[in-house]
Amino acid sequence: SGSPDAERYNDFIQKNAKDDKLKKESAEAFAKVQKLLPGKTSPKFSYPDINGKTVSLDDLKGNLVYIDVWATWCGPCIREIPALKQLESDYHGKKIAFVSMSIDPKEDFDKWQKMVKEKDLKGIQIFADNDWKSEFVQEYGIKGIPRFILVDQNGNILNADAPRPSDPEIRTLLDKHL
Length: 178
Known about the structure:
Oligomer: single chain
Strand content: 15-25%
Largest sheet: 5 strands, mixed
Helix content: 25-40%
Structural class: alpha/beta
Number of helices: 6
Strand order of the largest sheet: 5-4-3-6-7
Shape: globular
Distance between the termini: 24 Å
């Protein structure tokens, strides 16, 4: 997933595993996530927001960007909403952009709009173009949601698998990089 510990895990397996198949699988997996390690340029996105205005990652340069990849049908995603709203409120006015990227299927666009309004979701609400097959989702290798990503002020990855809003560690991470 691009965890900051991915390289350390792969090194451990390469040095200690006796199973050549495991070593090969680890090396292949690491090769895929290397581009998601901290400091690498983040994959980009450019999707319409709730008001129809196109928003891109480049538009948000100069801010930390905390990206929530979610869907209206995802129970764990919905359970994170109160914590995300509180986090957004607590960091309001700071140089951080909160982006919620829905990967709902196109036929659920109206359902997404309705949920955003009913739950009074804040931050930047965007709708990915091709749900699970959206380029951004594919480049980050997202296989499960919710998934949170933290990007620095220059568009570089800080954490490709950042803590959830309900995890106190996210506040430590945000404070460190603001």
